Amino acid sequence: MISRIAPVVVAITAGLLVLADFFIDAAVVDALGLYLIRTASVVTAFALILGLTNVATVHFRKIVNRDKSWGYSVVLLGALAFTLTAGVLTGGPGSALMRRVFDSVLFPLEATIFSLLAFFLVAAVYRAFRVKSFESGLFVVFGIIVLLGQMPVGAVLWDQLPLIKDWVLDVPALAGMRGILLGVGLGTAATGMRVLMGIDRPYAE
Amino acid sequence: MALSETSWVMLLLLAVFLVALCLGKRQAETGRIPDLRSIPAFNKLQDAMARAIETGRALHVSLGTAGIADGLTADSLAGLTVLEDLAKQSAATGVSPIVTMADPTLWPGAQAVMRRAYQGDPEGEAGPPRDVRWLAPQPAAYAAGVMGILGAEDVEANVMVGAFGDEYLLMGEAAKRHCSSHIGAASDPSVLPFVYVTADEMLMGEEMYAAGAYLSSKPWHIGSLLAQDVLRWIIVLAIVGLVVVNTVF
Predict the structure, then answer these.
(1) Which of A53, A71, B63, B105 has the largest count of CB atoms under 10 Å?
(2) Cα B34 from Cα B120, distance rounded (Å)
(3) Do residue A192 and residue A155 come from a single domain?
């Protein structure tokens, strides 16, 4: 019983205190709010250990069961063990060895994956520019206007094109975006309110 | 200790929201549930799970790159609500979805949702939920992990509900190639075009927060939809009124 109620009480109390800190300008409330936010950061760090255990378990199981592409799991666990050991022995992420690992392996790999976006974008645009309905027709027309308006050749073709492009981006596109953001804001507030009232309890078992 | 003008306005809006929420919940409980407009993505979600059960292939659920202690927590919670519904179906049929996330703070939440669903399985047919996976904290590495799962693990349907950035396109395109159905959701307007071009059905912006009302018909969730509408009208009328006042005076 207590294990069910305690997390709800802690979550609601912490939530209300942080909310009060947002509204009330008082030293005690400010200090409490700051303390709770800092505590959340510490808890987040512990979640990383949980995540790490999960990664190791999933891939260890893959190796034991000889699942499809289990060889990659061996590489992953090897890299995990090396990085962890090297990090602990050399003094953490600030050490020369770890910086080298990040600069020479992790960052180039990330850049490589994100560079694929350009090719994926072309494939996505090709698919999007097939007119299947009235909406997709509008999508294509405005897409071409904005595309041409962004390029110097657009102004050469018709000097009004950049101005139309600006209007499209500043008026209908911005209005639509603000409408979406207003809805997202209200949805976020509703979700927050439900968590604060203990209706949604993602933390409970 | 004095409240600023902005704080008073926000407190007033909060109070209106609370009252509307409680009234909406009571209305939903008495059976006077308003007609909710059809959102095809929620129907498709049920179809995707049914197809995964029929074919015996996996269903992948991505909860995005945010956690439960940052500015995009609401998006992550929306993902957990969708997962809750899918997990209940999976517990009844024994087809467990593969659940992935980029932020480790979301992992215990997802694990709890799966465990709750499996504890509620009266037949006890389903095994323990083992496929809740934290992949990597960096968006690019997470996208690479998801692309690997979609390509290698015989995934029938892909569901992506949570907070995403540009990496959405990498995963969306992989889903388009490997999965027979793909449902995407995002709240960030700059990601929505990627969802539009890759997903069979999409949840746009606030639609993803309505999952609890549409999938489980929870009274509090229906109430919060009504409260959102009340507040939306107040904001719209305030904008129009202020424009008129500014123009005339």
Answers:
(1) B63
(2) 29
(3) yes
pLDDT digits (tens, 9 = 90+) for B131-152: 899 999 999 999 999 999 998 8
Q: Does A203 touch chain B (CB under 8 A)?
A: yes
Q: Do residue B118 and residue B183 come from a single domain?
A: yes
The predicted structure's pLDDT at residue B128: 56
| Number of domains present in the structure of chain A | 3
Which residues in chain B are closer than 8 Å to A194, comparing Cβ atoms?
Answer: 220-221, 224
Q: Please, are residues B63 and B83 in contact by the beta-carbon 8 Å criterion? A: yes
Please work out, in degrees rounded to the nearest 5, the angle formed at the alpha carbon of residue B64 by the alpha carbons of B62 and B70: 145
Q: Which long-range contacts (CB under 8 A, 24 or more apart) does A83-87 make?
A: none
Q: Examine the domain organization and report whether B200 and B134 are in the same domain.
A: yes
Q: Which of A28, A180, A181, A203 to mutate to test the interface with B (most CBs of B within 10 A)?
A: A180
The ipTM, to two decimals, is 0.87
Q: Tell if the CB–CB gap between B112 and A199 is shorter than 8 Å.
A: no
Residues B142 and B199 in one domain: yes
The domain of A86 spans: 68-115
Q: How many CB pairs under 8 A join A and B?
A: 164
